[in-house]
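>> received
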Amino acid sequence: MAKFWGKVRDIVSSVAPTVATALGGPLGGIAATAIRAALGVDTDDQAMEALATDPQAVLKLRLAEVEFQKFLTDAEIRL
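>> returned
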């Protein structure tokens, strides 16, 4: 699974850099959940499919980035 999310991190890094950074650390599970939720999917395979085919994936990831930054701020977590 780490290899899978490494690929996703590469894709996501330009649109949602905070989420992408979190994927590689102890908040990886939370970041992965944020990505799946933003894309409206339940599994890793569905997330990759959505990233490849959903024309609104970039917008959804950008919104996930904003929400994730708010979560970090509210929880007083610094990456």
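>> The chain is about 75% helix and 0% strand.
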